[in-house]
Amino acid sequence: MKFKILLALIGVNLLQAQKFYFPKTAVNDSVILEKQIPGLAQQVIPHLQSVKYKPENTVDLMDNLFRLQIVAQDYKNSLTSLTENRKLFADNNMGDYRYIGFELYALAKMEQKENSTSFSNALQKVFNPKYESLPEKLIPRLELALDGDVKASRKLLKSLLDKQKGKDSIDYRTALALCKSYLNYKTYSTIKPQVMQLLASKDNERFITETKDLKINGNTLTITIVRKKENTSQLPVILTNNIYAGPIDGFFGKRAATYNYVGAVVNTRGKRNSNDTNNPFEHESQDIYEVIDWVSKQPWCNGKVGMIGGSYLGFSQWAAVKKVHPALKTIVPQVAVGIGIDYPAQNNIFMSYMLQWIRYVTNNKFTDEADFTNAVKWDSIFTKWYKSGESFRSLDKISGKPSKIFQRWLDHPGYDEYWQKMVPYKEDFSKINIPILTTTGYYDDDQIGALYYFKQHHQYNKNADHYLVIGPYNHGGAQSFGFTYVNGNPIDPVARISIDDLAFSWFDYILKEGKKPEILKDRINFQVMNTNTWKHVGDLDKMHNSSLKFYLQDKKNTSSVFNKPETRNFTTQIIDFKNRDQKDIYYKVSKKDSIKMTNSVAFESEILDKDMIMSGNLSGVFNISINKKDFDTDTYLYQISPDGKSYLLSTHIVRASYAKNNQKRQLLEPGKTEQIPINNSYVMSKKIEKGSKLLLLVGVNKNPNWQINYGSGKDVSEETIKDSGEPLEVKWYNDSYVEVPVYKD
To answer: For residues 520 and 467, is the Cβ–Cβ distance under 8 A?
Structure first.
């Protein structure tokens, strides 16, 4: 018996230590590499679908497979796998532009072999029919899809090869990464110059593109105008204000033109041809008014202007309506940044990411993609700051490049006049009388911001003509189209809609007296996940018609966590801010799944005896007492499904001292029982199946991705580990509750 067990263990170890032959001479010799890498890909392919290595969803599986097949020179099957990947990625051919560079490379390789021609001739021959076969609405996406970063892919390839120096074998994961990075470099270094010229030639047949520099408020702003050649009469203009200057300007312009509008894309101060100072968010409310004025008077404009865009571009539209220009007839803010609300601080807690983003948009006249996407670099910077115990204000210094913008933002920890002047504030919303369509998603990083504007507009303008569409979309999906999978899980077919089509059908409705989009049956239009249905209500509060109060109590001590406890007690949590080498703690959900719960206390509900639709956002109150003057709460609500998988339903963080008023800090009194209201959590609408449980994690925000609030009462940006004093002690009273919104038919 012992011998059999030993053999079994040896077999497991051999599987875990799977190695492939790959000669060390291939590392420094490109000729040998070229000969060896197809064989390496052929060795890796059979392992891709094994239990040990198979990706969680089929989209990722087919993604890896088609790449390996190209490297293995199995071009025909690679195209079949790529087609399957696209079908799984998005319905209704919305993803048919995806990875088109690899497709053109494979097609050209096949053409080259079949007709014994040069690769250049082969690429030219396959490009035209591929371009012509695409749906017109995908044409604007081609430039972005083909704009592969040759320099970055070469750098990654070199780093992977360097790790193989002196080795004649390679493990599975490194082999997969090497094959993929080789393909990226090989494809784009081979096709990019020629294919971009071919695309430009095709675009010139279809579009008229002009770039102008405007003098606005004493500053230079570059504007790109795109029109369809066949549209010779005056048209409404769809304007986008874009800080992310680069190829995406062409996409926005061509997209509008494809939908039979004039596309106009203006870059912010300091971008593209502008030598002015780039201070993100600060000047849009003044500059866009003047840009609209100029645009509305041009011979290709019929006097009507609409605006569209997501994230920063969504914020820009709210900045534009702080003072509405008469020519601006509608805006479509998508996943709009709530400046001062959810970025650069969420509920008054600044995020480390803000420095990474500042560099992204200010390092040069365009966007610094290489720096922004260098996850290893930024993780290292944030970790170095966290380990150092220095103040959050020192983060830019630790990164090696001080930032005036970063420092200026930190000077405004409350929602004060600095933030208020950038977008409409209170009574400003009452003067916004143009129609508006907002889109966001349950997984959108800026959902809180998008909904802030929506709620404020309806609060101060009772006649606001403002619609909301919200569904199972992430930050990218809610400004493009509904992906089949979000966070690794499939979304309902009814939610897989084109947000582009929705937005431009809205423009047709407002600017061309077209038909109202069918989905807009009421002010709030939301998709209930796991039901394959949309619902439509007139008020956000009507997304639910009941609720469950989840009390902070152990299910072992109560018949139900949803019943108010008869006896008041508390759960004590201790957080040592001086401990920077803390190991992560996980809550074991099942054999299949576990959830990180470092710095959290877990409360699990009983098993639900019937289906429940959670719809809306968490509210409630934490009754707590602490031994300090402040702390930052961190809350997560999960569904644990009957099959043992976890699904994140909602999150909430807030600085306790700002929880009651985000403009004015109110420090807590140590030892005194205080109430912390739960506001501005993430909205979700999802059917939770019978047999599920709810898992509630409540705790303290302490990690490298956010400011650390040591509780001294000083400006949190100035606090250091020296201010931490004794460990934080939180008493979470069991009459605290998180109110879960429920929709009942």
So the answer is: yes
Nearest alpha carbon to residue 441 among 293, 578, 310: 310
pTM above threshold 0.85: yes
Find the radius of gyration of the CA atoms of the chain.
28
Residue with structure tokens 């005056």? 234
| Beta-carbon-side half-sphere exposure of residue 383 (alpha carbons within 13 Å) | 8
For residues 659, 660, 663, 664, the Cα torsion angle rounded to the nearest 10 degrees is -100
Place of tokens 């799944």: 593
pLDDT digits (tens, 9 = 90+) for 497-548: 999 999 999 999 999 999 999 999 999 999 999 999 999 999 999 999 999 9
> Between vectors from CA 156 to CA 151 and to CA 159, what angle results, nearest 5°?
125
Tokens of 470: 């919200």
Under a CB-based contact definition with an 8 Å cutoff, are residues 246 and 363 in contact?
A: no
The C-alpha atoms of residue 600 and residue 587 are separated, in whole angstroms, by 10
**Are residues 682 and 615 in contact, defined by beta-carbon separation less than 8 angstroms?**
no
Q: What one-letter code names the amino acid at 551?
A: Y
Q: Which regions in the chain score pLDDT beneath 70? A: 1-17, 51-56
Taking only the tens place, the pLDDT of each residue in 297-337 is: 999 999 999 999 999 999 999 999 999 999 999 999 999 99
φ, ψ for residue 558, nearest 5 deg? -150, 155
> Helices 284-296 and 312-320, interaxial angle, to 10°?
80
Q: Specify the pLDDT at position 195.
A: 98
| Helix, strand, coil share (%) of the chain residues, nearest 5 | 40, 25, 35
Residue with tokens 């709530």: 338
Inter-residue contact 266 to 273 (CB < 8 Å):
no
How many Å apart are CA 495 and CA 656, to the nearest integer? 36
pLDDT at 5: 36
